[in-house]
Specification:
5-stranded mixed sheet, Immunoglobulin-like, Type 1 dockerin domain, 331 residues, 6-stranded mixed sheet, binds heme C, alpha/beta, 11 strands
Length: 331
């Protein structure tokens, strides 16, 4: 019996990459018109599943560390506001060099601009108070955007720390199949080889590998910009009262003429003060109203100090109160 003639196979879908095809007329947005390859790209699904499970633990948003605040306050100019925060890029890699712009125009270029330092921290100072638009951008990453950021004169606005997802190989502000295609088309190639596409090397490791796939998978389907929430607005308070700078000179001026000799209380330095006098301790750290030093200076417990009708100024009494309330440190 003769073998049935095999029916001719339908023309296979052409392999997209190494086979040269006649070029379509150049489209204005190249990625939008490129045909989506099929066939070998079923492995995309497998790669994506593996990479997605690796990436599942990567959170996109973390709560900020407010330690940048002290710096920000000291650099602020009177009447202006400061916006500060930290940014990270997804995956491994330094967090510096991320561009942060305030009040960028429609084209995203003008406005006050700074870049993050080695720890991802940034600070925009000297901004006009009002409502600020913020944009954070890094090549091949989705941007982060915050509109309506409150910017209060002489205050510091702290943004939450966000991670810029880095899977956007073709820079079209969305992580999609085209980014995967770009990586898989050049998979396992390293810098120096013909056809190496540096834009597919998302982590700049020099090779196009699983790490780049993970980057795409961990941000897959995200469309930029990502939300960038405000953490809070802080008006920096006055400097804490200093024992050496504020309290001790006051003792020298108004108290030491007698103390050292009377009441058992020596006011020469922090150690002697804390040792107390004839009645025991005269300072209870954190509790001005339990501290004989404050009670006598504020004329709540007699004999008042200093004696003889002399009154300390309200400012000096407040300094002593605040210093005790803050812990009565030898600062
Ligand atoms: C003119 C001298 C004189 C001056 C100035 C003076 N004191 Fe006194 N102070 C005394 C005498 C005397 C006593 C002891 C009074 C008593 O225990 O009845 C005393 C007691 C105290 C005590 C209580 C000590 C204890 O253990 O009972 C405190 C606290 C104190 N003084 C703080 C001050 C401070 C603070 C100043 C400066 C702002 C000051 N005094 C200035 C004379 C003075
Ligand atoms: Ca893209
Ligand atoms: Ca890489």
């Amino acid at each position: 019996m003769p073998m049935p003639k095999p029916t001719p196979m339908p023309t296979p879908v052409p392999m997209p990459m190494p086979m040269p095809r006649p070029r379509a007329p150049r489209a204005t947005t190249p990625s939008a018109h490129r045909p989506v390859p099929s066939g070998p790209f079923t492995r995309i699904a497998v790669a994506l599943t593996i990479a997605a499970s690796i990436a599942a633990s990567i959170g996109a948003v973390r709560v900020s560390d407010p330690s940048a605040l002290a710096h920000a306050a000291s650099a602020a100019q009177a009447g202006t506001c400061t916006v500060t925060g930290r940014l990270e890029q997804s995956g491994a890699g330094a967090d510096d060099g991320i561009t942060v712009r305030a009040n960028a125009g429609a084209n995203g270029t003008d406005g006050a601009e700074t870049t993050t330092g080695p720890d991802g921290a940034f600070q925009l100072t000297g901004l006009a108070p009002g409502t600020v638009r913020l944009r954070a951008s890094l090549p091949r990453h989705l941007t982060a955007a915050a509109d309506d950021v409150p910017c209060v004169a002489d205050a510091v606005t702290t943004m939450e720390t966000v991670e810029l997802p880095g899977g956007d190989a073709d820079n079209n502000n969305r992580v999609d199949l085209f980014d995967l295609v770009r990586i898989l088309a050049h998979y396992r190639q390293c810098a120096g080889e013909a056809d190496f596409d540096p834009t597919a090397d998302l982590d700049d490791s020099g090779c196009i590998d699983l790490y780049d796939l993970v980057r795409v998978a961990s941000s897959y389907r995200l469309i930029g910009p990502i939300a960038w929430p405000v953490d809070g607005v802080t008006k920096p308070g006055p400097d804490p009262v200093s024992f050496q700078g504020d309290i001790l000179p006051m003792f020298a001026r108004d108290c030491r003429g007698c103390h050292g000799y009377v009441g058992g209380l020596n006011l020469d330095d922090h150690a002697h003060l804390m040792a107390g006098g004839n009645s025991g301790p005269v300072v209870v750290p954190g509790e001005p109203q339990a501290s004989l030093l404050y009670l006598k200076m504020s004329r709540q417990v007699s004999p008042y100090m200093p004696p003889g009708g002399v009154r300390m100024s309200d400012e000096d009494i407040a300094l002593v109160r605040d210093w005790i309330a803050a812990g009565a440190a030898d600062n």
